[in-house]
Write a structure and sequence with these properties.
Layout lengths: L8 E3 L2 E3 L12 E3 L2 E3 L2 E3 L7 E8 L2 E3 L11 E6 L2 E3 L17 E3 L2 E3 L17 E3 L7 E2 L18 E2 L17
Parallel strand pairs: 1-3, 2-4, 3-6, 4-6, 5-7, 6-8, 7-9, 9-10, 11-12, 13-14
Length: about 170
């Protein structure tokens, strides 16, 4: 373990090009912080608070965000590589995931009203019992969202990828 994080609270701090692999984020509060070009992998996030935190061009793998402090969840992911991470049971309204690669991530029982997934690749990511009301999926690809198992009212999708929403209805399109 690197022990890069020595304080329990960080306010208006920019972390740039840091490899946080294996670093414990347990019980740390981040407010108005930016992680730019950082690598986060195999990090512990128990009771971590993210308030007004931006992850930009970061590589994030194998994180269980479901263990963070759920009182205030305010994160933004821009042009990040998110892999094998878990966002289960979080309220993440209006979260920006734009231009991200989101591979093999779980969004189970997650509230993502008005979230922005525009220009994302969502290969092998799981949406189940997820509230995607008014979420934006313009120019997003490789998503597999079952309209019978998720709320998608007023969500925005682009053609031709939106046709994938019909795969769960066992119909043929010619």
């Amino acid at each position: 373990m690197n022990n890069i994080l020595t304080k329990k609270e960080y306010d208006k701090k920019e972390f740039k090009n840091i490899d946080f692999t294996g670093e414990s984020f347990n019980n740390i509060v981040f407010t108005d912080c930016i992680f730019k070009g950082c690598k986060l992998s195999a990090n512990e996030l128990r009771n971590t608070r993210f308030h007004s935190v931006v992850f930009e061009e970061c590589k994030i793998a194998g994180l269980s965000f479901q263990n963070i402090n759920k009182m205030i969840v305010d994160m933004k992911f821009v042009s990040c590589d998110l892999k094998s991470s878990n966002f289960t049971d979080l309220h993440m309204n209006k979260t920006d995931f734009s231009r991200c690669l989101i591979f093999d991530c779980d969004f189970i029982n997650t509230v993502l009203k008005e979230a922005d997934f525009s220009c994302c690749d969502l290969k092998d990511s799981l949406f189940h019992n997820t509230d995607l009301t008014a979420a934006v999926f313009e120019q997003a690809v490789n998503y597999n969202i079952n309209p019978n198992q998720n709320k998608i009212k007023n969500a925005v999708f682009s053609l031709p990828e939106a046709v994938n929403l019909l795969t769960h209805f066992n119909i043929k399109i010619k």
